[in-house]
Design goal:
About 50% of the residues lie in helices and about 10% in strands. By secondary structure, it is of the alpha+beta class. Strands 2-1-3-4 form a 4-stranded mixed sheet, covered by helices on one side. Helix 1 packs across helix 6, helix 1 packs across helix 8 and helix 4 runs antiparallel to helix 5. Bound molecules: glutathione. Glutathione binds next to helix 1.
Length: about 240
């Protein structure tokens, strides 16, 4: 049984997609990041970076005590290694998957995240910051499109690389991007979206999602006013 500390955001969706694709038993422990639950000491003990997702594997393959994992890329690798699924064993194929997994973790995720922040969330609209991140996201979509011109999936067969990337393409319009400009990404995106496990994974978020858009003052303080002092565990 995997305990998944989760909120329905792109990084959270990565893990539900993996779990649904592989059919591993899991239980969701919601972490309401708008309320500051990511600062609860019990959560920080699992995820010292005060970010979800995190998992606890109650039955690790070494038969020892439960293991916790934070960082979505590390979680995907851990689960792929545990199950032997969605990451090839072959050295060359595995290396390709890891390249694209880390491309998402270090490139698409952080850049699209800043794009969302400056384009959609920031009260003050700063044209330089918006252009910088919208353009960088656009560049990354172009890189992905050229890669997907060569193969059906991002790194050979369907893998944790596809699973890491898909949730960050779902909000393409909110990132100022048009999928019609990237036909290979669009073809791959539509295929991913049609997978029943992917649909089940996104549906897991429904009970936690809410209708209201935007943030209250309190939520802005919790999410966008973090410093070393507030993130140390006393903010919630
Ligand atoms: N690199 C981390 C990023 C995780 C992350 O940014 N999670 C966000 C939601 S997508 C979060 O927990 N935010 C809480 C906060 O900003 O305090 C990962 O991939 O796991």
């Amino acid at each position: 049984m995997i305990e998944l500390h989760y909120w329905p955001t792109p990084n959270g969706h990565k893990i539900t997609i993996f779990l649904e694709e592989t059919g591993i038993a899991y239980r969701i422990a919601p972490v309401n990041i708008r309320k500051g639950e990511q600062f609860h000491p019990s959560f920080l003990a699992l995820s010292p970076n005060n970010r979800m997702p995190a998992i606890v594997d109650q039955a690790p393959s070494d038969g020892g005590a439960p293991i916790s994992v934070f960082e979505s890329g590390a979680i995907l690798m851990y689960l792929a290694e545990k199950t032997g699924k969605l990451m090839p064993q072959d050295l060359r194929k595995r290396t390709r998957v890891l390249e694209w997994l880390f491309w998402q973790m270090a490139g698409l995720g952080p850049m699209a995240g800043q794009n969302h922040h400056f384009r959609n969330y920031a009260v003050e609209k700063i044209p330089y910051a918006i252009d910088r991140y919208v353009n960088e996201t656009n560049r990354l979509y172009g890189v992905l499109d050229r890669q997907l011109a060569k193969s059906e999936f991002v790194a050979g067969d369907y893998s944790i690389a596809d699973i890491a990337i898909h949730p960050w393409i779902v909000p393409s319009e909110d990132q100022g991007q048009t999928l019609d400009d990237f036909p290979n990404v669009k073809r791959w995106f539509d295929h991913m979206h049609s997978r029943p496990a992917v649909q089940r994974a996104y549906a897991q978020g429904a009970p936690y999602r809410r209708e209201r858009q935007g943030f209250t003052e309190e939520e802005r303080k919790i999410l966008f006013g973090q410093t070393a002092a507030t993130a140390a565990g006393g903010a919630a």
